[in-house]
Amino acid sequence: MNETLGPILRSVEKPGRYAGGEYGAVIKDKKAVKARFAFCFPDTYEIGMSNLGMRILYGSLNREEDIWCERVFAPWVDMQEKMRTYDIPLYAHESGDPLSAFDIIGITLQYEMCYTTALQMIRMAHLPLLSCDRGEGDPIIVAGGPCSYNPEPMADFIDCFSIGEGEENLVEVTRLYIKMKEEGRYTRAAFLHELAATVRGVYVPSLYDVSYNEDGTIAAVEPKYPDVPRRVLKCVMPDMDKAYFPEKVVMPYIEAIHDRIMLEVYRGCIRGCRFCQAGMVCRPVREKTPEVLDRQAKCLYEATGYEEISLTSLSISDYTRLEELTGRLLDWTDKNMVSLSLPSLRADSFSKELMDRIATVRTSSLTFAPEAGTQRLRDVINKNVTEEDLMHAVGVAFDAGKTTVKLYFMSGLPTETAEDLAGIASLAQRVVHAFYTNPNRPKGKSPLVTISVSCFVPKPFTPFQWEAQDTMELQAEKQAYLGEQITDRKVRYTHHDARVSRIEAVLARGNRRLGASLELAVEEGFCFDAWDEFFDYDKWLSVFARTGVDPAFFANRQMGLDEILPWDVIDCGVTKEFFKRERARAYAGVTTPNCREQCSGCGANRLGGERTPCPGCGVKT
Amino acid sequence: MKNNDVKFTLPVLEEPRPLRIRFRKTGNLQYISHLDLQRTFARVLVRAGLPLWYTKGFNPHIKMVFGLPLSVGAESECEFLDIRIERDMSEDEIKTRLNGEVTDEMAVTAVYRPTRKFTDIAFAEYVYTVKAPGLGGARDKVNALFSGGPLVVLKKSKSGEKETDIKPLIRRVSVEPTEGGLTMTAVLAAGESGYLNPELLITLLHKAGLLTGDPMTERYRILRRRVLLADGETEFE
Questions:
Q1: pLDDT tens profile A508-548
Q2: What secondary structure letter does DSSP report for A589?
């Protein structure tokens, strides 16, 4: 820690965010390493330190003796102001060195609304914002994370994207950098070209020419050189038992949002909900074995001292050996006063046995996500959860003395009608009713059913990627209509800010023309747009207007099935044909069996994978 | 891999045994609040594999009592934490195990069975290292400032800001000039009958015009060196 920062840290909120020196932080001799990597998380320390991906990548890079990976978080606004006043450039947590001293800067893009913060971090590092303005002495900026599946809105700023699972890919990228430096043939251009040509999963936007039609849609995307791939295939770890696993963890002194052990049980999802990007781009499903998970959990417990283990996956109850895993864990967690928790529950597989094993027993609330109010619409989105499942699940919860149930829904889903919205209210009402008709309910207490309604955001690489988002007017109308349907005080209704969801849709489905808008947004000081207190819809509209971007073109337009989409340059493993088939089934109201029941030929199994429900299936197209 | 299951093989004590841990809170740790320190230490105790005694209740938890809270922005050589163990593990082994789980900035300097109560603490001795050109020559003025009185500062509390004379909370101050600044040793109230945030002495130096620069560019360090009993002399253990 730099001594000169002392008085500044004494004057800002939560100085522990900037102090560093945590137990488990990796310190190396900067003169002895061949490459220095600054891993940036474009949000606060508490959020970044909760991110499992960051923990994994930090560990996998630092496992390499000659690479030193450090962490960087976005300073909160009070600290930003002090850093501007006293001319302190953004620095890395471990060494305190400014980012310009690094070889490679990695930025993880976890959600669209972090783009402005990510770009502010480049500015705070006193580096040119645009990739084309950075020189030979400047670090290479690589981005990854879920949002890089549509890299185009950030294409002007980022030198290269790492697509898919990065634990080996980022090491490969850094290795090539070291090699070219050692061989004396490193230039930014040569490095990026060789990277694109030889390392799987790397997308270098500057090596592609994009041309547009008069209507603003994309006419063509052409690689500039023949050895640059037309489509960039994502990286996957085929065998999760063998994938790198961080046995040491940096222990934050201040409380992180998720201050517990996060045990990643498997990757991917068998379900295929048609709005869900993670469920598609993380395919194929690859499980870890209970033996390996138990060993990793024990190891993490001894390395952290956390008293809670959260079993993390997209849909934990779909893990085929959940009972065996919880059995093994309970063998030692109970006597060590460690509790288990599950972040995601599906109503159709929630049982008393499962609840008895997990820590949510301590809390009085349980959360389920029916997503839509009627069976018809749940079939359209392929949620495959019935009202019976939900009633059974809340019955188990009420039996066990719970009084609070939280239900997540989405409004604005394709084909949605007034009946579907009213269905949300009546479903909540029937949950209230189920409480009062349950003979085992906690006596003398009244239930509270919270319905939280978010706005549908069409996401790349989903069967709904072409759909139009509802206009703001329609969304407001729907939110008000649903509000009117709720008359019982035991039902509490909250909804997301439609304005945020609209900007999210623009950024999610945007193309390179958004680069100018983002550049202007950053110039105007946009930052922390994921935080309600800083998000300003009117300022976003103004920025779009001044850069000639019509937000409706990206958010509210039904895109053509044959249109070249901005993200077509990325190959996430699942084919476009599959998404088209799934879209057609959605409009026909037909569900698709989950991957374990029957292979639907999405194409992801060509990527391989151990302990997957679809080994060796042919790709049906 | 270390073996934390050893704790289950040790002989059970008839009564839970109280233990006192003395540790440092220096360097980066000075920016960590008391609440965060408590959470951090709970995890250190678990990582170290100690045979901890848990409260017997609906929600069992580790029994931890900290000595004297330290203001954020000050460092310390003498922080105290009391715990209880339910199986027999030697104090030496506990110290070794704890030091395997903390950075140097939080090093454990002693583990022993306590004799004194935390309520016996009345004062703390702080060493200030201030780097500010010209201040070394102001030794007499600094001495005069603290031997006179009253010393009124604006104190923030829940009910708003209030002018308070902190002179009664200052037991003694001595000043030594150094190259580029000065070293100041102060014994300040730190107990149930009163507690003075050591940072306020820096505020007083500013108020008296002895420190004149932008506070954000100053360099100073405040270190709690000893914790003292009511006589202001005897060191608390």
A1: 999 999 999 999 999 999 999 999 999 999 999 999 999 99
A2: T
Q: Do B47 and A254 touch (CB under 8 A)?
A: no
* φ/ψ (deg, to 5) at B225: -95, -40
- Chain A residues in contact with B47 by the CB 8 A cut-off are 302-305
The verdict on whether omega for the bond into residue A551 sits within 30 degrees of 0, i.e. cis, is no
Distance in angstroms (rounded) separating the CA atoms of residues A585 and A281: 20
* Residues in chain B closer than 8 A to A20 (CB atoms): 28
**B108 and B8 together in one domain:** yes
Check CB contact under 8 Å for A85 and B216: yes
ipTM of the complex: 0.89
Q: Does A615 touch chain B (CB under 8 A)?
A: no
Nearest to A82 among B28, B46, B216 (CB): B216
Please tell me if residue A10 touches chain B, with a CB cutoff of 8 Å: yes
Measure CB to CB from residue B28 to each of A1, A4, A303 and give the nearest one: A1
pLDDT (tens digit per residue) in A210-220: 999 999 999 99
- The verdict on B112 and B175 lying in the same domain is no
**Which residues of chain B are under the pLDDT cut of 70?**
1-2, 136
CB atoms inside a 10 Å sphere around CB A195: 24
- What are the structure tokens assigned to A461, written together? 């690489």
Mean pLDDT of chain A: 93
For residue B111, the domain's CATH number is: 3.30.70.580
Domain termination site, one of B118, B151, B167: B118
The H or E element containing residue A394 is helix A387-399
Q: Which of residues 170-199 of B touch A (CB under 8 A)?
A: 199
Residue-range definition of the domain harbouring residue B204: 121-228
Instruction: Dump pLDDT digits (tens) for A559-606.
Output: 999 999 999 999 999 999 999 999 999 999 999 999 999 999 999 988
Same domain, B94 and B149: no
Q: How many CB pairs under 8 A join A and B?
A: 93
For B199, the closest chain A residue by CA position comes to A10
Structure-token pair, residue A78:
């009070």
| Cβ within 8 Å, pair A9-B31 | yes
The tokens describing A373, both together, are: 């109010």
Mutating which of A1, A2, A9, A10 best tests the B interface, going by the most B Cβ atoms within 10 A?
Answer: A10
Q: Which of B118, B148, B171 is the last residue of a domain?
A: B118
Mean pLDDT of A68-96: 95
* Token duo for residue A272: 């295929």
Q: Give pLDDT, residue A364.
A: 61
* Whether residue B58 is found in the same domain as residue B157: no
A11 contacts in B (CB within 8 Å)? 215-216
Q: Parallel, antiparallel, or unpaired: how do β-strands A104-108 and A140-144 relate? A: parallel
**B94 and B167 both lie in a single domain:** no
Kindly state whether residue B202 falls inside one of the protein's structural domains.
Answer: yes
Q: How far apart are the first and last CA of chain B?
A: 35
Domains held by chain B: number: 2
- DSSP three-state, residue A534: coil
